[in-house]
Specification:
heterodimer, A: 116 residues, mainly beta, 7-stranded mixed β-sheet, 4-stranded antiparallel β-sheet, 49% strand, globular, B: 113 residues, 6-stranded mixed β-sheet, 12 strands
């Protein structure tokens, strides 16, 4: 019963390098999310995917791209990492698929990224 | 647009004392509300959620929250704090028609012996 799995758990990048954060869920959820967590700012939404084949920008999308590879997987790519992207990244999923359904978000364990 | 405020970035209580963590929200439509807990170096875990079935919601680990529409609040309480309650707590809101969860800045709870 894995839930939401993120890889890697830790990563150090040099400024300008690229990388992809992977996320997979095994709960057959329609919606998936990428958040970043910074001290004192809570979780801020980067991108989300309401269903397979769709993606939308969240509050802080600049510098990131996403791919909803299939219903299970939602990846986040940093094309040219910057020190401002040092953060903890969380992937989440939810059974949200239509209006009115109250379901919570389920979170992965996070990826701690440092850009030097 | 929805938003969440949490009064107090850090709250300290003595073991056995009442825990009160405050959450106020703004939403133009009836909201769904959530409290999550985060232990160090872990993801977020759902404590409880408001489903509109009852204004007083009971969650895990003895926590509960009361939805007050007139005050746009959803404060989290626990009658008696335990050392294991030390963690960061996040309030979140989702609108009835929304796909996204908006989180507050979080409150770090310390429990003193």
């Amino acid at each position: 019963n894995a839930g939401v799995t993120q890889t890697p758990k830790f990563q150090v990048l040099k400024t300008g390098q690229s990388m992809t954060l992977q996320c997979a869920q095994d709960m057959n959820h329609n919606s998936m999310y990428w958040y970043r967590q910074d001290p004192g700012m809570g979780l801020r939404l980067i991108y989300y995917s309401a269903s397979e084949g769709t993606t939308d920008k969240g509050e802080v999308p600049n510098g990131y791209n996403v791919s909803r590879l299939n219903k299970r997987e939602f990846s986040l790519r940093l094309e040219s990492a910057a020190p401002s992207q040092t953060s903890v990244y969380f992937c989440a999923s939810s059974a949200l698929g239509f209006v009115g359904v109250n379901t919570e978000a389920f979170f992965g364990q996070g990826t701690r990224l440092t850009v030097v | 647009a929805q938003s969440v405020t949490q009064l107090g970035s850090h709250v300290s209580v003595s073991e056995g004392a009442l825990v009160l963590l405050r959450c106020n929200y703004s939403s133009s439509v009836p909201p769904y509300l959530f409290w999550y807990v985060q232990y160090p170096n872990q993801g977020l875990q759902l404590l409880l959620k408001y489903t509109s079935a009852a204004t007083l919601v009971k969650g895990i680990n003895g926590f509960e929250a009361e939805f007050k529409k007139s005050e746009t609040s959803f404060h989290l309480t626990k009658p008696s704090a335990h050392m294991s309650d030390a963690a960061e707590y996040f309030c979140a809101v989702r609108s009835t028609y929304g796909q996204n969860f908006v989180f507050g800045p979080g409150t770090r709870l310390s429990v003193l012996p």
